[in-house]
Specification:
The protein is built from seven helices and 17 strands. By secondary structure, the chain is of the alpha+beta class. It has a nine-stranded antiparallel beta sheet. About 20% of the residues lie in helices and about 40% in strands. Its cofactor is pyruvate. Belongs to the eukaryotic AdoMetDC family.
Length: about 325
Amino acid sequence: MAGASSQNFFEGTEKLLEVWFTGGSEGSDLRDVKQESWEKLLRVVRCEIISKTSNADMDAYVLSESSMFVTQSRFILKTCGRTTLLLAVEPLMELVQEQCGFKKVLDVFYSRKKFSKPEQQHTIHQSFDEEIAHLDKMFKNGAAYTLGRINKDCWHLYTMDAVGVMEPDQTVELLMWEMCPDTMQIFTKKLCQDGPEATKKSGICDIIPGVQIDDFLFDPCGYSMNGLLPGGYYITIHVTPEPHCSYVSFESNVPQENYMELMEKVLNTFKPGKFLMTVFANKESIAKDNHKRLEDKDYVPGYTRTDHQFCTFKNYNLTYSHFTRPII
């Protein structure tokens, strides 16, 4: 995440992996994995731990390339740049069986936006087809989807073709690019000394009040933050501010019946030229009907919707929307 110079390109678009485990004993807990074991796993991915924060429900790690979250039975890893996230899946399953006793994957979700420069990725991540082939070797009932325009902006998802997670579960993402240059200056050492200053000056601290924040400002530029709330809820934000490859991601699993107000807060904070929004919620979640709030939302203040898709599979509803700022 440490900023590249103006001559270099940095792929801000993240790879996002979420794995739910089962088949352990009553006391099995992913948070019992030793930190040195996490560090060894992350070396496979080509990133490292910068800091850790915890509450009663979750451990959250700010990484050199994005974030990692660990609960009793759920593991989330989000990495940007040229990281090799999928190479960690098999070692992860071996690690949690050895140290926690979890013998089975209950569910898996892998997703990402289309890369700006896929040719710069490791071979396994240069195409979604390669990623699918790798995951299919480990999961015999995998199912892969692409939403959006495959010749332009789109979003990929891989999951298991069977009902797994039965407790309430939801994730909202806003992936933003062509960012406002003035806003992006906040996330540089020229304007802010550290993460807390950038968090306050940008207004990130006001998006979801009350979160326990762990933030980091890279040198010379770039920003990452994790925010924790009771109940196993989190937000995470990552900023690539360079003008030629500017990108911001926002992700949260905070349950809401309607994410429109949250979306507008995020947009007002970062002012992207384009963004896509995904809402992924199972039938047990209060967020399951967000697609009804979004289906008639052709216009968001300052933006026009260019694509909108709704899918239902397993016990989840998934909504994908793409917006762009009109050219004046």
